[in-house]
Amino acid sequence: MNLAGRPWLASYAPGVPRTFVVPEGSLPDLLEDSVRTYRSAVALEFFGAPTTYRELGAAVDRAAAGLRALGVTAGDRVALVLPNCPQHIIAFYAVLRLGAIVVEHNPLYTDRELRHQFEDHGAKVAIVWDRVVPRIQRLPEDIRVTAVVTVDLISAMPASRRLALTLPVRRARDARKALTTTEKLTGPRRTVRWQELLRHKPLTRRHPRPAATDTAVLQYTSGTTGIPKGAVLTHRNLLANAAQGRAWVPGLETGRETVYAVLPMFHAYGLTLCLTFAMSIGAKLVLFPRFDVGLVLDAVKKSPPTFLPAVPPIYERLAAAADERGVDLTSIRFAISGAMNLPQSTVETWEAATGGYLIEGYGLTETSPVAAGNPIGPTRRPGTVGVPFPGTDVRIVDPDEPSTDRSPGEPGELLIRGPQVFQGYWRRPDETHAALIDGEWFRTGDIVRMDDDGFLTIVDRIKELIITGGFNVAPSEVEDVLKTHPSVRDAAVVGLPGRGGGEDVTAVVVLSEGAILDVEDVRSRCRDALAAYKVPRTIVQVEDLPRSLIGKILRREVRTQLLNDGPRAEGSDRR
C-alpha cells in the first residue's frame, strides 16, 4: 500500500485535521488544564450528586498525598478494582500524579483471575470497591499487597439517596447489598478507608511530574491467546488517543457536553472515552456503576446526554425502552459504537429516535484503544469500521508473511502504526517482539479488507478462523447467516476437532422466544447462502452465550465449554 497517498484522508468529515500533532505533557496535565478552564462547571455526576472540576482537582491532589503516605512512588503499580464511580476518576489521576502506574481490574473477576494479574504486575497498594475487598484479602500471602484502600460507593451519593437506602424495606436492602458489603474487611493486609486518603494536605505543585514517555496504565487483555497480558500504555499513548477523539468529532462544544459513562472504565474503551477524552473537553461525566436501562433513562430526564459511547445491545435496549416510556433522546448528538459489529437496523432505529449520528469505530487495547472510525457526517459507510484516525497509518499484509503487502481490495491482516500504539506487553519481551514489527507496526490479528478510498471492513480474527477440509471458514460469516433465520436470536460459531486432523464447523444458537430448533431448516438456510464446507456440521441449542462485560460473545469460552461437554448428538450431521 502506498502510505504517502493515505486515500482515507479524502473521506474525513469537514473540520477533521489531515495532519496530527500529539499534545505535550502528561495525563495529570490534561486534567489540570480542564480544572483551570472549567473550574465551576460540573465534572462528575453520580446518582445526581455533582462534583465540580475545582473539587475534582482538589480531591486528586489530596488522594495523591494520601497514596504517597502509603509509600507509593514513581513507577509503582497501583491496582484499581472499581466500578464506575467518582472515586475511580480521582484514584486514576492521583496515582498518575505521583508518576505511578494504574492497573485496571474488572471488579467482577474471580479469585483466580485476580490472583493471576496481581502475580503479574506486583502492585503493593490496591484501591478496591468494598464488596471486592474480601477477595483481595484472600489472595495468597506471597502476593505482596501491603495496603488495601476500601471504597464505599454509597458515600459518593447525595444525602437523599443515602437516606433512602437505610429504609427498612426489601427494595432498599437489596439496593444497598448490590452497592456495598456487610462482610468484615479485616485480613492479613492493612485496610485504609478512602476518606482517610482525602484528609491529607494536597500534594504540592513542586512534586515531580511524570514524563510523556512514562508508563501510565497497564491494561490487561487476553486477545485470542487465553492468557491475559498487560498492555503497556504511556501518557503519550493515552493523550494522543484522547486528542484524536476530539479531532474526530466536528461540532464538539468544549465545556458544554454531557457524556454518559455506561461503559466500564476498567475497560480500554470506557477508559479513553470517559476517563481521558471526556475530561479533556470539560464535559460533565454522568457515572453509572453498571448499565441499567431504568437508571439511564431516569438520568436522561435530569441531565440530558449529548455524547454516548456504547455497544450495539445498549443502543438497542435504550431506544426500545425510551420509546416505551416516552423518554426524549434527542439531546444525544453523537454516539460511538465499538467492540462488535453494528447492525444497520440498530443505526436506523437509534438515529430515528435521537436525530443524531451513530457511527462505528474500531480499536484494540493495544491501540489505546481507538484506531479507526466512521466519519461523523455524510461520508460514513455503514457495515465498515471507517477509516484510520488522524496520525494513524495502516497496512494490509499477508498474515503468514507480514512483510508482504496485500493488493488493494484483497483481505489480509491489519497492521497499525500511530502515536496511540502501545509499547509492548508487561514483562513479556518475546510476545512484544512478535506483536510489533520493526518495533512500531502492531499486528492486530484481524483480517480486514480496505476499499480504494481507505474504508476498512473486518472479515474475521486470524486465530478464530476455522480450517476444514483445507479451507478457511470465517465464524462471523456463518453467524451472520444463522441470525437471518427467524428461529435464531443469536449464534456463535467455532471449530471443534474433526476427522483427518481438521476442524468441524460447529454452531451454538440461542433461539427466539417460543421457537423450536429445526436443525435441517437452519442448515438449509445456511446451504442457500454458504459454500457446503461452511455449513455447520453440528448445531447446539443453549439458553445464552458467554459474553464480556460489554456484551461481546466470547467464542473461546464457547469452544472450551463444548470440548468439556464431550460429544453431543443434538443437531449432529454425520455427512
Q: Can you walk through the features of this model?
A:
This protein is an alpha/beta fold and 575 residues long. It has three domains: 1-23 and 234-276 and 302-315 and 329-461, Rossmann fold (3-Layer(aba) Sandwich); 26-210, Rossmann fold (3-Layer(aba) Sandwich); 465-565, ANL, C-terminal domain (GMP Synthetase, Chain A, domain 3). Helices cover 30% and strands 24% of the residues. The protein has 17 helices and 27 strands. Helix 12 (312-325) links the parallel strand 12 (307-310) and strand 13. The longest helix is centred in the N-terminal third of the chain and has 17 residues, at 53-69. It is globular and about 70 Å long.
- Report the count of strand segments: 27
Largest sheet: 7 strands, mixed
Task: Compute the average pLDDT.
Answer: 91
Per DSSP, what share of the residues sits in E-state strands of 2 or more residues?
Answer: 15-25%
Which superfamily, in CATH terms, is the homologous superfamily of the largest domain? ANL, N-terminal domain
How many whole angstroms does the radius of gyration measure?
A: 24 Å
Summarize the entry for a quick read.
The protein is of the alpha/beta class. The chain is built from 17 helices and 27 strands.
